[in-house]
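Action item from last week, closing it out:
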Amino acid sequence: MVVGHMEPSKLRTRLACASFFSGYGLWLIWKLVSISMLSVAEGSVFNTMTHALVYGLILISILMSISMDVSLILFVITAGIGIAVKIAAGDVLLLDTALILYAGRKVEFKKIAWFTLYLIGAGSVVIVVLSQFGVIPDYLFKRGSEAVRHGLGFRYCTYLSHIYLNLVMLHLYVRDGKLPAWQYIGIIIINILIFIFTDSRNSFALVLLLMIGTLCLSIFRQRPWLGSCLRSLAKYSFVAFSVIGLVMALVYDSSTPAWKALNSLSSNRLAQDHASLNKYGIKPFGQEIEFAGNSLVTGGSLVSRKESFPEADKNYIESSYLNTLVLRGLVPFLAVLVAFSVASREAASKDDLLMCLILFVIAAHSAFDPQLLNLLYSTFLFWVWQECSAFFRKISMECAEKNKRD
């Protein structure tokens, strides 16, 4: 080999990696901007061209690194599901996710975590700072007639808190859960400030749970009860939260005081889930539904979606599990449960207690908010994909060995 030149295989690997990070990074920036007051109107040429450029970069990465293995089979299945959902429901998110996850399958997850942490962390800070200097609006929302909630430059007041939860989980992961005292304090202070300004309760509580759980891991790691508890939570929480949420939505009775109290505690989520399930039912690959959430419309407008689309359904489904089941269908719902169950069991079998804690927090967050399948908020989908690929590859090799012996 001539000095200064690179072997074709190494060159392809580097090009695939560079194309992946370029496409994934562009997708993250595009999606972050789209949930902020910097957003461009839906259906614009800018959005179409950006989406096309992302696809181009991701496809280059895939073509540079494609190989006939278990990951390719998983990709064909997930991309096929994504295409079916696009046809049935008009939703392209699953297809985007499948393409990006497959393109990043050979990249170490810790590198993806660092990249996301810096890019989304810096981008979020820029948006908040711009809103406080009056460059973009800091829109004020209200929870009924109660608290005033700041958007902080985002199209809805909870978006920043969901992003922050993901960033905290990524930070814990890349640091192996070992944080100095000042980082614990800093994370909690920022969490409290976000809560004061946005009144976002779920993510606020889960960040505190993460901090307490990580502290317990550093103090009581050798205690058998802690490991047993976290392994069980990781293995069963996704199925448990999804089943409990579905059953509660089906049997909800607004005339019963106990159900009324639970509905109030869930910020009317139970009533909305119940109404949507009864109205739309469940299809194999979802259905196109126009929901009118509380967020502002894209394009920097100060008009909410409820005002802009008065004919849209106001019973928005906030649970990731039920949202996937109704909007994207039974097949994607089952695929998601299988993927997270497999990955959770792998984490438990490897005694990766920090990941078990993170997976439980993701499962709990998904019971109340719809971000589970959105890579902007759910970077650990990369880890889940890689663990599932390794698991099915192991099964494939075991089957091949058994066939040889037979």
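Closing note: The radius of gyration is 22 Å.
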